[in-house]
Amino acid sequence: SGIKCENCRRVNYCSQDCRARDAAASDEEEALGHSAVICSILALCNDDEVVEDGKEGSLDTDKRNAAIDRVVSEFESYPATLANVIIDGPCYQDALSKASRGSLTIHIIGASVDSELWEGHPDPSQEGKVFHAYAEALAEIADRFSLQTINLYFIGPDCPKNDSESHIKVPKVLAAEGSKNECSLKVTTIKSEYNKSILQSKSVPAPDIVVFFNPGFTVPDYSWEEALLAIPKGTPCLSTTNTELEGVADIEFLF
Questions:
Q1: Contact, 110 vs 156, CB < 8 A?
Q2: Distance between terminal CA atoms of the chain?
Q3: How much is the pTM?
Q4: Which DSSP letter does residue 128 get?
């Protein structure tokens, strides 16, 4: 298992000498892939995982509160990223314009209960409000394009065991409170791999936009070939990553 970093406890070294050289490094280039900055971030990840495991009582007050804020922010980033990128991204404007005064269908591929669907939220009362968070985030898109319905499909093997369907009224944004347009968010969760067969058997409508949250296309534990082949040609996609390095790897994989 090697010799662990004494601070983050996440990086192993082959010898005490290597660990000492990293500890003495003054900048990123001198460090052996584990600079002081990276080490500090990894240490914060430890605190975040303690919160996610429901054991935040083991942390002191400052660390606990900071970790809870980070974890909550991560959960809230899913609906916020979805809405903010789509409404401003040039490649999505044609799909939004075509859906104007009608319905917009978005497929979130590889969705899971403990990320996009908020299971394990530090505030348990918020877990049941996850779809309302998506409705609020998508409100500006609904108003700007006079949408009547937004169909949001969460599809992945780590979705809830029982498939579900929910209907939520999309709230109006302040600037559009006088508008007569009414929009409903239809949320469907499907526990399955994403492929042409499941889309047909579940009568899932073709997507206007496809979303991957942190898919890790190059991770050997998963195969994305069937999912990618099931996306209709020309459909705009949104894919997020946790790091720039992962982003570059995913782009190389796709192209």
A1: yes
A2: 37
A3: 0.84
A4: T
